[in-house]
Amino acid sequence: MGSTDQVYKIPLLQEGSSQEGMGMLILSAALPLISTGPHSWLSWTDTVSYQYIIVFVGLYMAAIGYGALKPCVTSFGADQFDHTDEEERNRKSSFFNWRYFTLNAGSLISGTIIVWVQEHEGWLWGFTIATLFVALGASVFLLGSPVYRYQRIGGSPMTRVFQVIVVAIRNFSKELPCDFSLLHELPEQSSSIEGSKKLEHTAGLKFFDKAAIVLSSDCESVGLIDTWRLCTVTQVEELKILIRMLPIWATMIFFCTVLDQMSSTFIEQGMVMDKYIGSFEIPAASFQSVDVIAVLVLVPVYDRILVPVFRRFTGMPNGITPLQRMGVSLFLTMLSMVSAALVESKRLQIARAEGLVHREVAVPMSIMWQGPQYFLIGAGEVFTIGLTEFFYEESPDAMRSICLAFSLATYAAGNYLDSFIISLVPVFTARGGNPGWIPDNLNEGHLDRFYWMMAGLSFLNLLAFMFCATSYKSQRATRTA
């Protein structure tokens, strides 16, 4: 491993951004207390104005820090395993599983303990405790500094990508040599990109090969090569790998669209169901904890029980491939939509039988019937950990953090796609006095049809994924030391 500690410093900087954001949220919660003091120089109007500004700035700072921290910490953690050691390489797959376990454990704490504190003691205490947890995490991270393995940084991966695109466009009219060994590559055994292995030339996407065409003007300036005029084969292959992973990435967007139903239509559905178990009321939004609990239960089951069982049949150290895990996750989320559709069909049937169609009230059907749809999504999340593993394993050595960030972008894209679909549903279903599928009063609507549509789209997406997965050829074998 390399000796520089720059990769190590990046998560610390991002942790600092999160801490500053949380600090601003604490300040926003404290402002009303400050303004009511006997020596306060702030009016109530000023306090509210400042509070809004501080809240939004704090939220954005925390989001930027966390958004950048997540892929870097994941990549840094996976880099602690020696890729040349078979035993450590096999344990790396478990690392991805337990990383997701800890994320959900944190989610459970924030959704229970922190929420309870905020409701009973106020936002100031809630934000303060959350900030202390962030500080504790940073401290634990620092404690491991003496034993970490540090990877060298190979420069900006996005700069290399743009260099290939620019040079390929500039050489658009040039002819590729019949012998691809004539394309530019350093004669040394190691790559020109620090921390990365050389990548052998692969067929396909030949347009980008033009970025490595050696021109006569390049030959005259040996040792002074401008990387904005001539790229190496390894640089070109980095971009090719990213492009070849794009179809897999695109098919996982719809998984995140289904995942987003937990914070939208599932809650709306739960609000018009019987939320009481005896005298205890279950808030519809809190039922998302079933998903978190499913993940916390199933990650150890998968890692300790299912992987050895799969290994016995497949002979593979990790049981099944990351692509196979992703396929299972898409299948399970499709089943979740089927379960939600069946529950909603039954709920609407009861609403009609009880004469509640035109009344915006809860139907006498227990919210516990939502359990299977939440559980199936949680099970799907356990298998979709393969997405993180896939992007880490398949990405070029010096592009792992950016590729992991790219994989996480599926969640953002999925959220936007969900918003787009839900905004289109009333346009096509609420016509001629028809309330549509998702009206304000769900008893008058047909949320079940929406779920059936999502199940159908999930099935089509699964077929598209299977085609992309079977067509994908791993590039790990093309890497040389």
TrEMBL record:
Its placement in the membrane is given as:
Multi-pass membrane protein
Q: Which Pfam families match?
A: PTR2 (PF00854)
Please provide, in alphabetical order, the Gene Ontology terms of the cellular component aspect for this entry. Answer: membrane
| Transmembrane domains' residue ranges | 21-44, 50-69, 98-117, 123-143, 241-262, 323-343, 404-430, 450-469
Keyword entries, A-Z: Membrane, Transmembrane, Transmembrane helix
Q: Where is this protein localized, as stated in its record?
A: Membrane
Q: Its domain of life?
A: Eukaryota
* Primary localisation category: membrane
Question: Has UniProt tagged this entry with the keyword Transit peptide?
Answer: no
Family, according to the entry, reads as follows:
Belongs to the major facilitator superfamily. Proton-dependent oligopeptide transporter (POT/PTR) (TC 2.A.17) family.
Protein's name in the database: Uncharacterized protein
Biological source species = Urochloa decumbens
